Amino acid sequence: MKGLIRMEQTLILTGNQAAALAARLCRVQVVAAYPITPQSKIPEVLSEYVERGELKAEFVRVESEHSALGVCISASLTGARVFTATAANGLAYMHEQLHWAAGARTPIVMPVANRGLGAPWTILNDMQDTIAQRDTGWIQFYCMNNQEVLDFVILAYRVAEQLLVPAMVCFDGFRLSHTMMPVSVPSQEDVDSFLPPFELPYRLDPDSPVNINPVVMTDPLANAQGEMCPGYMGFRRRLQETFQEAWPSLAAAGRTFGEAFGRSYEEPLYGYHTEDAQFLFVTMGSLASEATETVDLLREQGIQAGVVALRIYRPFPSQPLRAVLRSTETIVVLEKAISYGYEGALATELKAALFIHDRRPQVYNYILGLGGRDVKPLDLFDVAKEALDLAKQNKSLEQPRWLGAGD
């Protein structure tokens, strides 16, 4: 991977290598690095790019994940394109700074190699880490394969810098981060054309100083020029409105990406055999691959099955989901995370999105794959059979099913 990429080519890359290469193609200017398995290879690769002169960036070695995001926030506020990566307990350590990054409207892009949270300790995959941070004001992309890891980092910068909100690019630790796959890599010239340099919407001028992220009061107050400025709740509302109104920007960026590179992400959902499906798996991340294989098995049995996988979880794609699920009879939501005391967060939000419809399908939630527990297509085949049997009996479930949990 030495030297600038001058034409599109196919390389065999791990998910970590794909994320690092995407950051280089995006010409990031500041990299804040702190290692944590399974994402440690991302800053390692970027440090090699910087050392060889292939990436003109300030590589900042910090003492913690909290500091890493602090560096990114500060650098972004000066107009730099910034990058960091993390996982699991490292992401949890960033929690305070995640809110700061969103509240300060900094377009940071951060890959997260999803990993189970301790305790007990595990270095293996589930999505509890990022799902637990869904309310911090970050766009969340979820990758099905390593091609999407590379593509979504590039796409995330364009969207984040347009909307002025940070973005996570989430992909399954080890299952994608350390697995090698063919990845189509665009040329540097094409990425430069798709992603122009980042420009701040305001001008930093020492002769005209301004406060950034000042203390605000409950009620709106006038600034020095006599203009009314929002109070704290007004800032929160503005951030929410940005997310609510983000879909045209997300769709346009995904469509333009397709025109530039031949892979369109105009739709926030991956779909497989959804047109006539009476039974659907709904999931995110690499589980979509196993679900797709299972659908082929179910179709051989005469069951009209399909898969829907969310590429974007925040903002939540409620309208696209309602459109694709409108004629489905039975839905199984497959999740690698649990909202303790209730069910998986994706299942809850899917039900809320469908609630306004008079006709509602049966929705069954399955929690699986936590801590790297293997999930095979034949396991999902049994899940589908069980759910279809429950639906045939018109039985609902108040609690999620656990697959492979043991005692």
Q: Keywords for this structure?
A:
407 residues; alpha/beta; Rossmann fold; 2 domains; 6-stranded mixed beta sheet; 14 helices; 18% strand
Which whole number gives the mean pLDDT? 95
Give the DSSP E fraction (strand runs of 2 or more residues). 15-25%
Largest sheet: 6 strands, mixed
CATH architecture level-2 label of the largest domain:
3-Layer(aba) Sandwich
The third-level CATH topology of the largest domain is Rossmann fold
Number of helices: 14
Radius of gyration: 22 Å
Give the gist of this structure.
This protein is an alpha/beta fold and 407 residues long.
What would you note in describing this structure?
The chain has about 400 residues and is an alpha/beta fold. The protein folds into two domains: about 10-195 and about 250-255, Thiamin diphosphate (ThDP)-binding fold, Pyr/PP domains (Rossmann fold, 3-Layer(aba) Sandwich); about 270-405, 3-Layer(aba) Sandwich (Rossmann fold). It has 14 helices and 17 strands. It has helices spanning about 15-25, 40-50, 65-75, 90-95, 95-105, 130, 145-165, 190-195, 230-245, 245-260, 285-300, 320-325, 345-355, 375-390; strands spanning about 10-15, 30-35, 60, 80-85, 110-115, 140, 165-170, 180-185, 220, 230, 270, 280-285, 305-310, 310-315, 330-335, 360-370, 400-405. It has a six-stranded mixed sheet with strand order 11-13-12-15-16-17, with helices on both faces. A four-stranded mixed sheet has the order 5-7-6-14. A three-stranded parallel sheet has the order 3-2-4, sandwiched between helices. Strand 12 (about 280-285), helix 11 and strand 13 (about 305-310) form a beta-alpha-beta unit. Helix 1 crosses helix 2 (about 40-50) and helix 3 packs parallel to helix 5. The N and C termini lie far apart (about 45 Å). About 45% of the residues are buried.
